């Protein structure tokens, strides 16, 4: 975990981790034969942690309040990423893999789509729009802007960054919940 925080590409190598931990490389390779296996394991650990934070936010949202649920889900995502930059990097790098890559992170992420569609009232056949995809893309982009310290390019100037992030998320949710796009 410490090494992951220090590596800008959010990938670690089994041999380097073994050396740092003071264990023989061959023992580390018995558990993780390939660097990719170690990195996938770290990303899976990170995704479980993030999913837990998001689940807690959904539990805290008032029942039946789709707006509060979406805001809570989104704020939990962004705030977890801000507190766990290196682990989020391990997640986001998996999300950007080719679509045929088999990754626990991609499966977890895809698992949230039906939930978001339900909160967008799109859980019935024929009632689906592209709003869930827009929500996911906006949340991913907003998180990256914040983590790369580029939020001032897009967010309104505000003394309290946390308040501005919350207000931006609330406005995004409101945009997603109001009106439905014209039929395409």
Structure description:
There is one protein chain. The chain has 184 residues and is an all-alpha fold. The chain has a single domain (14-178), classed as Tetracycline Repressor, domain 2. 70% of the residues lie in helices and 0% in strands. The protein contains ten helices and no strands. Helix 5 runs parallel beside helix 8. The chain is globular. The model has no long low-confidence stretch (mean pLDDT 83). This is HTH-type transcriptional regulator MT1864/Rv1816-like C-terminal domain-containing protein. It comes from Paracoccus solventivorans. Keywords: Transcription, Transcription regulation. InterPro entries: MT1864/Rv1816-like_C, Tet_transcr_reg_TetR-rel_C_sf. Residues 72-148 form the HTH-type transcriptional regulator MT1864/Rv1816-like C-terminal domain.
Report a brief summary of the structure.
With 184 residues, the protein is mainly α.
List keywords for this structure.
184 residues, Tetracycline Repressor, domain 2, 70% helix
The CATH class, by name, is: Mainly Alpha
Instruction: Give the integer mean of the pLDDT values.
Output: 83
Global geometry:
globular
- What gap, in angstroms, lies between the N and C termini? 46 Å
Total number of β-strand segments? Answer: 0
Helix content: over 70%
The radius of gyration is 19 Å
Major sheet attributes: none
Question: Are there runs of 5+ residues with pLDDT below 50, and where?
Answer: none
CATH superfamily: Tetracycline Repressor, domain 2
SSE-based structural type = mainly alpha
Count of individual domains: 1
Range of strand content: under 5%
CATH topology: Tetracycline Repressor, domain 2
CATH architecture: Orthogonal Bundle
Number of helices: 10
Domain HTH-type transcriptional regulator MT1864/Rv1816-like C-terminal: 72-148
Protein name: HTH-type transcriptional regulator MT1864/Rv1816-like C-terminal domain-containing protein
InterPro entries: MT1864/Rv1816-like_C, Tet_transcr_reg_TetR-rel_C_sf
Keywords: Transcription, Transcription regulation
């Amino acid at each position: 975990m410490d090494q992951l925080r220090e590596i800008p590409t959010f990938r670690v190598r089994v041999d380097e981790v073994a050396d740092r931990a003071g264990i023989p490389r061959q023992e580390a390779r018995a558990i993780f034969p390939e660097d990719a296996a170690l990195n996938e394991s770290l990303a899976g650990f990170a995704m479980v942690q993030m999913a837990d934070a998001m689940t807690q936010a959904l539990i805290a949202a008032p029942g039946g309040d789709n707006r509060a649920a979406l805001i809570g889900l989104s704020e939990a995502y962004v705030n977890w990423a801000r507190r766990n930059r290196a682990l989020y990097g391990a997640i986001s790098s998996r999300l950007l893999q080719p679509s045929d890559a088999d990754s626990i992170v991609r499966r977890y992420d895809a698992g949230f789509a039906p939930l978001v569609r339900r909160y967008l009232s799109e859980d019935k056949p024929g009632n689906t729009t592209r709003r869930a995809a827009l929500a996911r893309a906006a949340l991913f982009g907003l998180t990256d802007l914040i983590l790369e310290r580029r939020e001032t390019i897009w967010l309104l100037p505000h003394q309290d960054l946390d308040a501005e992030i919350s207000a931006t998320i609330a406005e995004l949710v409101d945009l997603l919940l109001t009106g439905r796009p014209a039929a395409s």
